[in-house]
Amino acid sequence: MSTVDKLLEQTNLLHQLIKIPEGIDSKEMVKKISRKKVIGPSKENEWKHVGRGSLEKESDGGFILESPTRFDTWAPGDPTDGDYVGYGNTKATLMIDHENWENYNRISFVIDSECTNVINPNVIFEIHNQGKQRIPDQYNREGYHVINLSNHLKKTYFLNISDLPRDEITEIDFNWEANGSYMNISGKYNVKIKEIELQKIDDYVTTQGWTPDGISYSHDGYENGESKIAVINDRNDSNEFSIIDANSKKNIYNGKIRQIQNDMGIFKVLDFSEVKKSGDYQIVCGSLATRSFRIGSYRNIWENTVPKVLNFIYGERCGFPIPGIHGTCHEDVVAQKDNKTISYNGGWHDAGDLSQQLIHTAEATQALFKMAENVKNTKLSKRLVEEGCWGIDFILKTDFGKGFHATSAGVSRWTDNKIGTMDDATARVHDNPYENFLLSSILADIVQQNNLDFEMQKRLADLAVSYFEVALNKFKRSPYEEEPVMWEHTYSTSKSIYDATIVIAAGHCYQITNDGRYLSVLIEFMNRMINCQESDGITLTDKTILKGMFYRDAKHKVFQHFNHQAREALFVQAFEISLKLPVSDVLHDIWCERARDYGSYLLFLKKFTYPYPMIASGVYFETENLDKESFNKQHLLIDNTAYQDYKEQLKQGVQISKGLYVKRFPVWFSFRGNNAVLLSMGNSAAIMGRVLKNNDLLNLANGQLRWIIGNNPFDQSLMFGEGHNYQQEYSTSSDDMIGELPVGIETKGNKDVPYWPQFNNATYKEVWIVSATKWLSTVSELLK
What is the pLDDT of residues 692-701, one digit of tens each? Predict the structure, then answer.
């Protein structure tokens, strides 16, 4: 029985969540301690209670922190509408007298929790430093770690603090945000914390940089014909490595280790590209050996991840009882328009919090239907369609007519489901043309997957056309209208991405109607889109001519970048659909040439991260920060320091000509983590590879999946429950679930090197439906 079939059988066709194995498969185990120091109350400082609930001090130096799961008023200082807040914070604080903790690299503590009716009991550990580098940082991202507790169990927790600034520690805290209870039954937090200890361990996990601790390789495997690279630490004294059959243990390949040096560092590279036969293998290098991985087709490698990611998506369902997590939820999150009121629940919760985004649910729905077309397992395909229908239900439900949709709601709590009480939330409603174009393209695409009955296909086709028409009419009156609030997750949309979206929507509407009007719109906006593309070429310092990349608009002043939300693949989808349709040979040839230019640009970015498969984020002009309107749309929740930090971040990249840089990681500030960026670019490479029949692009797409599943400097899989060495992620509302993916690996400060601390605050380690959606989309394109 295949792995997919086993998971389907064990979970009643994924109507129950996949069981998490005992213990988290992490490198952060109990290790030898060479130095330690007990942290606790003293004559000068004691544990103090802050906020709601209560604190009781224990004779052993520990304390018990308690609070109910909800309160009948908002906490002082919280917004009166309850936007993006829980019911109040309960905190225990210990002031520290400016101590230097640099001689320690780990902190441990014992937590005993006896919580009742709490959905995912958790505690936030908080640390403050006022030395050379302050934490929490200006964006409140550094210095926080959320621990999902093992309820009714006393347990010792270890936190790696090796990369945290700790030269002048002034405070530590333990706290939580009360955010409701299971089925709104009266609940209570009761958490005892004691035995807090600083420790020095000699063998700790690297959290920053390009140099791996052990062997960096793809935990799930490599495609038969692609370049197969693993990386080891340059301090390793081995000169040779072997590939062995994981089953027979026979040695099937010996290779020389090649040392390389570039501006990222010195690496020892294990190249076993000559091994092309399908099978299960291990890498052996001196005393190091990997676990088993597969060499095979894209399907052999990645299809097993599909039910796991589907498991996470199912676990994020809103408005539907999920066994082991929550009951029916958020019936009192309401949207109103023209005397009509709906409960804005359904689809899937957006992230580690409980917010909801119509567009994210719609994009997830599209990915599910696409994947259903590309998996061979009939049971899994039907289950994907079933989950996709849950998304369609939400899209239909939130439609107020005449282009108006309930679009988003900021929710961080479990509500009581009773409309009219204090914890109700209000969803945003508007008729922005961009969202209508995007919804039109998604619904028309789903219609063509042929997974639905005729009546539903007809209904969705009619909606797709109506959304397009209402969007086009409003667009003519108000071109490129911006989103009304920054919390809409399409807020950063550029004119070039807008054009690409219209092209895709028009192309799909033409395909389902055969109406030539849509073909005319497609041609107009396809030409607008390629006017935003670099076609003449920029001469680089090494005399290379670089072209193919897109700008945000036809002025060619600011390149198109993504740093959190990422819809890079829309450019390529526009190319793909346009090249299928009946246009003149002249236009077809021009568009095909531009598509090749774009594919070449993606391959150009590949070399800046070798020997890792991660694609660099793109090219940047040093003057882009001067366009404040564009800059402020791309980067949310920033202050004036961001404009100077932009220059500092570019200096950490690679200068390729005067005033032009390549950044391996995006320029970013408050919102960090690049999984969505990588997977959107990977999706682009997969589609381009298929359209242009270019295996290098297909393998570039595959490389982004490999990076996420272990082929990174930390030898960690970022997908919980897949591969190994995965860590607890920021899943504060619903607990960890097999198949969840975080926002992604970040950078520290203005550096351009990977940073993956054990601390798991938002956004970098926050689980996100967008990452799951883009994983399915990229795998789906490769399975084609």
Answer: 999 999 999 9
